[in-house]
Amino acid sequence: MLKTPTIEKLQTLKLNGMLKGLEEQNASAEYESLSFEERLGLLVDRETIERENRRLKTRLKQAKLRQAACFEDIDYRHPRGLDKSLMLSLGTCRWIKERQNVIITGPTGVGKTWLICALAHRACLEGYKARYYRSPRLFRELHAAQGDGTYLKLLTAISKCHVLIIDDWGLETLKDQQRNDLLEVFEDRNGISSTIVTSQLPVEHWHEVVGNPTIADAVLDRLVHNAHKITLDGDSMRKKKAS
């Protein structure tokens, strides 16, 4: 006789995991042999799992990853210079805990974007917040925020991401405002959170992309010297899959 009021209270308290667990227990005779404490423990476990799944779903939605990549599906068979031991180390997410960065360079088509999405997905599974940007879009959003008065709000949001992903870095030489924006982003994150960057250009050419030598030194000092570097080569994986 207490079932309906209990269910209504669980709904009011938004204890959806416990509600589903209670419904399952009521529908199956196999739980009747369990003690009250055991059945309660199962309900608490179900609520915990339900909440963590919701948080994970939110983190993945906020990350806006470009590709649905899973770390366990990384292809080590394709010859592209991918160090499996390094990737497995990165898969532990210790680099995020230690506030380190990751830089992946290589020609188009070798799977840079897929790899960083796989790393970001693993980070989300481990409870970290991530956010993916292609570099042109990042600069567009920062420019728009300058115009509508939300610049500081956007910088704060970016700084709070445990893992910031900047894809396709170095497509063109930066303009003055873009240099300043980039320095602000890395200054806020330096020693506090981690950044992943991909580029077709080798790191030694990044000074040319930034343009201003002083700002380039400041930006790269905050990014490169504390980074795991992965240099890929070989044929395009897109062409391989298409064939």
Nutshell version of this structure?
It contains twelve helices and five strands.
How would you describe this protein?
The structure is a single chain. With 243 residues, the chain is an alpha/beta fold. The protein has two domains: 3-62, no CATH class; 65-242, Rossmann fold. 55% of the residues lie in helices and 12% in strands. It contains twelve helices and five strands. Strands 2-3-4-1-5 form a five-stranded parallel sheet. Helix 9 links the parallel strand 3 (163-169) and strand 4 (194-199). It is elongated. The N and C termini lie far apart (65 Å).
Proportion of residues in extended strands: 5-15%
What shape does the CA trace take? elongated
Low-pLDDT residue intervals, each spanning 5 or more residues: none
Tell me the number of strands. 5
> Remind me, CATH topology of the largest domain?
Rossmann fold
Side by side, the strands of the main sheet go 2-3-4-1-5
SSE sequence, one letter per element: HHHHHEHEHHEHEHHEH
Number of helices: 12
Largest sheet: 5 strands, parallel
Radius of gyration over all CA atoms, rounded = 23 Å
CATH superfamily of the largest domain: P-loop containing nucleotide triphosphate hydrolases
Q: Give the overall average pLDDT.
A: 89
Keywords:
Rossmann fold, 2 domains, about 10% strand, 12 helices, five-stranded parallel sheet, single chain, about 240 residues, 5 strands, alpha/beta
Fold topology:
Elements: H1 3-12, H2 16-27, H3 36-63, H4 84-90, H5 94-97, E1 101-105, H6 112-125, E2 130-134, H7 135-148, H8 151-159, E3 163-169, H9 176-189, E4 194-199, H10 206-210, H11 213-223, E5 227-231, H12 237-242
